[in-house]
Write a structure and sequence with these properties.
It is built from three helices and two strands; from the N terminus they run E-H-H-E-H. The protein is mainly alpha-helical. The chain has one domain. Strands 1-2 form a two-stranded parallel sheet. Helix 1 packs antiparallel against helix 2 and helix 1 runs parallel beside helix 3. The longest helix has 39 residues. It starts with a strand and ends with a helix.
């Protein structure tokens, strides 16, 4: 019996890579969240019957990269929020 490919394994891998590449921008967070969401079904199917499916390595790598890309993107957004708040605070005190 030939093993089936896990659903969305390639898509999750591509989204994970893109979320890392674009983690400096908001789009990286969005792609990472989509990658995490798409990986859920495949991970569940593989855990129920691993002998039927192939491609778990790609799915898992994409899942991990999506998590890392989302975290880096979140930290980047937090960084720019702090920098923006600091600049606005400094600018408002200099106006008086």
């Amino acid at each position: 019996m030939e093993k089936q490919s896990l659903p969305n394994a390639t898509a999750v891998l591509v989204l994970g890579i893109c979320s890392l590449v674009f983690s400096c921008f908001l789009v990286g967070v969005i792609l990472g969240i989509i990658g995490i969401a798409l990986s859920g079904k495949g991970r569940k199917l593989y855990k129920e019957s691993p002998e039927l499916y192939d491609g778990y390595g790609s799915l898992n790598a994409g899942f991990i990269m999506s998590i890392i890309g989302t975290a880096l993107g979140g930290l980047t957004i937090l960084y720019w929020a702090v920098v923006g708040g600091t600049i606005l605070s400094y600018w408002s005190t200099m106006q008086h």
